[in-house]
Every structure is written in C-alpha cells, then in structure tokens.
Sequence to fold (374 residues):
Amino acid sequence: MNLDFSKEQKMIRDEALAFLKKECPYERVKELEETAEGYDPKMWKKMADLGWLALMFPESYGGDGGQFIDTAIIMEALGSMVSPSPFFSTIIQCGLVLLEGGSEEQKKKLIPEISDGKLIMSLAQYEEHASYSVSDVTLTAEAEADGFRLNGTKMFVMDANIAHKLIVAAKTGDGEISLFLVDTNVGGVTIDKVPTIALDNNCVVTFENVSVPKENMMGDPGAAIAVLEKANQKAAVAKAAEMLGGCKASIDMTVAYAKERMQYGKPIGGFQAIQHFIANMLIAYDTNYNYLYRVICMVDEGEDFATEAYALKANVNDAYKFISERGVHIHGGIGTTREGDAGLFFRKVKAHEYICGDSATLYDAVFENLMQQV
Fold:
C-alpha cells in the first residue's frame, strides 16, 4: 500500500490551502460565524468553479470521478482554516447518502446541481432523544394516495438554514425507516437556527403535515438504516480529516506563539514544560494523521474499513480536544478571546465530536464489530 501523495494530490492540497488562506483567513472566519447565513455564497461558488464539489462524484453523474482521498484532502484544508461552509453537510453527508440510496433519476438530477454549487443539502436524521441509532427515529411519514405526510422534529440539522433540500429519515412502518427528499420552502417546514458555542449552522427543523410525493422517497421503503450506516462510515473518516487539519493548524499556531512570547527574558518555548506540551501535541497528531491516511487508502481500495473508521474518529475526537486545549493553555488568556485565533479550534471540538458519533458510541461500535469476528 502506497501512502505517499501523488503529484496531483499534492497540487490539490497546496492549492486548497492557498485559496482558503486568501479567501477565508481567520478574521474572515470570525465575521462569517456571526452572520445569519454562516458562510460566504461567493466563496462557495468559487469552490465549485475549482472543482472541489465534484471531486467525489462519478463522471456518469457529472462529477470528476476522483478518489475519496481527494475529497479528504479538501476536508483537511477546510479544517486547518476552520472555514465555515456547507461542504460537509452537502458533499459528504448528503452526497454519500445520495450515492448509496438515491435512484438513478435522483442522482442524475441532483449531483450535477450539487457539483455546480447550485444545490445545498442537509441531512435531517437526529432527534430530541439524541440517539445515534436510526431505528430510534420517531418522525412519522404516513402514506397517502399520492405520497406521504411528515410530522415530527429533527435536531442538530447542520446547514438547514441555508439548504434548498433536506434528506429526512422518517418512520414509514413498524421498525421501518425510510429516506425522503424534502424541499425546505414547502409548507409545514419550519427551520430555527440554534445558538451554539461553536457558532455553526446547527438547526432544529419541525415538520407539520408536510406533503411529500412518492417519487421523493430515496430507495426502497425501510432502506434508511443500511444506507445511513454505510454513508456514516465514510463521513466519519472525512470528519476526522477535517479535525486533524485543525489539529495541525493549532500546533503550528502554538509553536509560532511559543517562539515569540517572552517571559523572564526568553521565549516561553525555551521552557521544558512548554516543550513537553508541544511534543505531546505532535505525538497525538502524528499518530492519528498516519492512521487517517491508512484508513482512507482502505476506502479507496475497497477494503472493509468500518471498524477502522469508528476507531479513527473516536481517537481523533480525543486528540483534537487534547491538542486544542493545550494550544489554548500555552497561549494563555488571549487563547480564550475572539481577538486571538487559538480559540477557534477549541470551540469546534465538542461540536465535531458528536458528528458521526461521539467517542463512547464509536468505541462500542468497534467492540461490537470485533466481537462479530471472533
């Protein structure tokens, strides 16, 4: 297995970082976080023009037919600059669900619009009881003569406030969970953005007698559990890439500060305690970074990566918290302020941890998968 980047992949990485540093430096990130939209539509269009939104999709659906590693590189760059955009919700979450569970007609219609930056989508899966299990979905989709009628509430729906369409997991029968495409502008859909410490587009979506035509069901009735589980495994790897991008940027920022910050007539980076902190940050990062691209190669080579994806995301959850927390400690008081940049990463830790599964849930999944192999 070759873990080296190809010439093209190095180009994607370098150009992505250069673009984000120019278009969305940390000061711009702070400005966008405080807007109602939470992202820059002009930058989103530029990302589409660069081909980022099409990388993951097959050429048969209007995509570029790239490998998963190409999109993971983009995710890592986005994480390093903490760039707010609907990339994860639209390209990763909904894109993967669409590829796994959508009909040919749905793929041919929606994927080109996504790739062109014209369609933003959001996955509405989780509910008030905060269960990661798809089988615990309680939002109902009652069958009617010409379709279905949705009633219920979805929580933690990322970027729903800027989305054009939702992919909604709903109960269509006893133990049967199905997926539906729902336009955000139809009657009965109410979207409320929730204030969070991470300042992300986290929303509550309420469905009250929302009429959905039959052709908007994705896949067969009851297909949601299998589709979401498979899509979530890749999404967990992509989110880990984004988080490790943040880890690396946090380390680089902290090292630079430790070289400049003077105390007792010398840079604080000269003190052994600070050196130990930074060394441990680097160890946590390097270990998980190497693991990340090992798992990404498993994805692209068609190997069974489910257990590795869960273990990776669980470890990165802990590593991101450790690294960003140490970064704030070394920066001191300014690390907790909006004037500084170190806090940008620390505020994202808990929000990112719960996307695709928190550590406890993922470790349980690792255990269950390993026990099945015994």
Residues 56 and 71 are 6 Å apart (CA to CA). The first helix runs from residue 7 to 23.
